[in-house]
Structure formats: C-alpha cells, structure tokens
Amino acid sequence: MAKQEDKFKKVLSHAKEYGYVFQSSEIYDGLSAVYDYAQNGVELKKNIRDYWWKAMVQMHENIVGIDASILMHPTTWKASGHVDAFNDPLIDNKDSKKRYRADVLIEDYCAKIESKIEKEVKKAAKRFGDAFNKEEFLATNGRVLGYQEKINSILSRMGKSLENEDLADVKALIEELQIADPLTGSRNWTEVKQFNLMFGTKLGASADTAMDLYLRPETAQGIFVNFLNVQKTGRMKIPFGIAQTGKAFRNEIVARQFIFRMREFEQMEMQFFVKPGTQKEWYKKWKETRLQWHLSLGMGAENYRFHDHEKLAHYADAAADIEFKFPFGFKELEGIHSRTDFDLKAHEKFSGKKLQYFDHEENKNYVPYVVETSIGLDRMFLAVFSHSLQEEELENGTTRTVLKLPSVLAPVKAAILPLVKKDGLPEVARKILDDLKWDFNVAYDEKDAVGRRYRRQDANGTPFCITVDHDTLQDNTVTIRHRDTMKQQRVKISDLKEIIAKEVTVKNWLQKM
User: In this structure, which CATH number among 3.40.50.1370, 3.90.78.10, 3.30.360.10, 3.40.50.800 belongs to the domain 412-510?
Assistant: First the structure.
C-alpha cells in the first residue's frame, strides 16, 4: 500500500510540474475537490474526448450527438428520481470529526484483502517461474479462495443493506470489520445517514420570484428529454443512440483521490434506444465494445476487469462497471447499464407528453428501452496519466522519468530541437515547425543541451523529438528520436509527416478494436 501511495504522490506532483492539472484558485489556498486543466492537460483531455467521440459517433451511422444545457427544468430531476433517491451513505468519526462515505470505507477494506491476493500471486509466480498458471492458481489456492469468499460476502451484504436502505446494518458491518478512521485509527463512529448530492441554484431576477433549480448531476437526462426531437428531426430508426459529453456537478462531501472524485466533472455518455426485449443482447454487445475501446489504447488487459452490480439502481435491470487498476487499486472507470424504459416513462408521466417511437415494421407505438454507456472523462484522464508515468533504469545506470502516453492522446506529438541556437539551425527548425503544425500539435525547444531537452520531452509525454543539426543544412535530413525506445534514426524532412502520422492518427489506433 505504501508503494501505491508513493506512486500516487508522484502522479500528483508530475501533473502540476508539467502543466497538466492545477489546484483551482490555488492563490487563495484552493477549493477542495475542484481542479483546473493546464496547458498540457487541456490537450490530453480534448484528445481523450475526441478519441471517444470518433469511436462512438463518427464510426456508427446510427449514433448522433447533442449538447444539452446544464440547467434544466426542476421537474426533470423529480422525474429522474434524483430529488428523492440521489444520495450517498455518510458516516462521521466522532474523534477526528472527519466525514466518510460508508460504502467507500467498506470497499477500501476489501481492496486491502485484494492486495493480499496479489501478494500470494506474486509469491507463487516467483516460486513456480515459467510454469506458473495464474488462472489455475486463483481458482484452486485455498488461501486465495478464502480471501475472495470474504470479499464477496462483505460486498454482497453491503449491497443488500444499501438496497433495502438498512443503514443500521451498514454501520454494523463497519463495526464488525473493525474499520478505523484512516487518519486517526479511531473506531468511534456516528450512525450512517443519507445525503443528497445535487447542487441547488436559482433562476430569476429577484430573490422573491426566483425559481429553484439544480446543476445537473448527470448528462443523461438531457438526452432523454430530447429523445423525440432527435428521433424525428434525424429520422432515426431503432436501434439508435444519442451521445453527449459535458459537465456535471455533485456535492461530494468525501471528494478525494485527486481528479478521481470531484464536485465538477465531465462525462461522456451514450444512450442507445432499443426495442423492448432486446436490451440484454445490446447490453452484452456494448459491454464488449466498450472494453475493446479501452484495450485499443494498449494499457494492458490485466489492468481492466468487469464488476457486475449486485445492487441495481432504481432504473436498471442489469449493470456493470469496467474497473481500471489505478495507483490506489481497481476502481470504476466506466458504467454500462440496461436502464429499461424507466427514464422515458417517468418523463412522460411528469411532463404529460408522449415519448414513444412508432415502429413501422410492427405498426405500433412503444416506449423504447435504453442501454447506457457512461465514462468519466476526468477518471479516464487519471487512468491514462497514472498508467503512463514511469521511471526507467537505463543501461548507463541513470534513471529517466517518462510519460508513456498513448501517442494518439499525447498533447504534443513532436518537439523540434535545433542542436544549437546559431548557424541557421533555428531557422530550419522553425520552417519544419510551421509545416508540421497544420497536421499536428508540435512544440519548439532550443533551451539547454539536447540531452536535457530529450529528458524534458520524455517527462512531458511527447512521442517524437526531431533534432536539426549541421548535416541538415547539407542533406535535408534530421534525427528523429522515439520516446518509448529512445531509438534514433536519420530521416528526410519530407518523410516526417508520414512517420508521425503513422504513430498518432486516430484511425491507426481505433482499428485495433
């Protein structure tokens, strides 16, 4: 656990030092759980968003996008169930005066048991060497099976208690497991209480006439209320999807783990409308499709897993998370939910307007069922950034810090470096920059020795460094250096565009799906 904490501290430090993420309002001592994306962070975030949009919208003829407003009529949230049911189970420690999410305390306890399983796997792998079969070991080792049974039992009980709103049993479980305050070690807990997460605001010119509104806690409802508008104007036939990216807001009392859980965050969601009775088939298909999207980025299949929900939301008949191995353990990255017809029927009821689809083949109207894919853009940013940050031991005994971002997502694709700041080399380098910037986000760097510039670009995540030297003036060739391998090769200036494009274009990455 200490090693994981050290890794996470390095992620936070690196994100600030290299212009990826800043604390919001830092000069005023910051605002808790609110962050600003800096000059490199905004590019990485945009590239992740674009990569998702191309895969979800551009590559599907039957999926279109919208951009619904953040402010919506307040009845929207009554219909969706957020006014009555959008709560977190919170518990306070009487000694430390700190507040925690009760379910997260229990999940963190289970994560510690999971770390014991990982230790058993590492020990066995070391003992058996090449003959080690991980799957067989996990399925047969008595100690591992005991650990896993304990995890399943704890999570199953917690899920049932939350579903039945038996908060007393949630507290009882915390006490039985002897879960202590992470800061003080105290086990002096209050009762568990529910807390609504929506931010309230007002709309109007004066306090007397202002309407009470909420900042949207999710982007999905903007899609549901526009279902018929999009279907009719786009002449969409079922099955079809509506995608959206945008900000959402939740008054997270226990916001933590950097940008993993924030009060202002961005979602990338797609609601797929299907014929009733076919939702399970589409649910399975979208689970597979979304996992393949993640795997296309090459961050290792072993770092992803599905977690099927035992406790289902009020609107779902099936739900699963794609979990990613963050520095603090496996946590939810994306959710795939079979939402049934709950949302459209609820909006029909509260608005008095029909939200139905006329199926010409069956010659009848019906309310479609919905399969949702929902991923947190900020969490995806953290997954990519934390996985990519590595320290490598080099052959000469030194170490280098390198941010091995998938090159398709890297903020800067190439840095152009004149070997020296004279002899006409900067002018040639600038000419290369001006040519490449039409197709790629590129940077110019002439400060310090070239070796130090290489290290700087490695730490910044730049896939290529292009060095202009005195030979360039004679033969129009440059040295191109690859970030991940540090391999250098001499190439023609005229070939640069093709070499970079092969490594960074979305097409070449998405085709891995």
Answer: 3.40.50.800
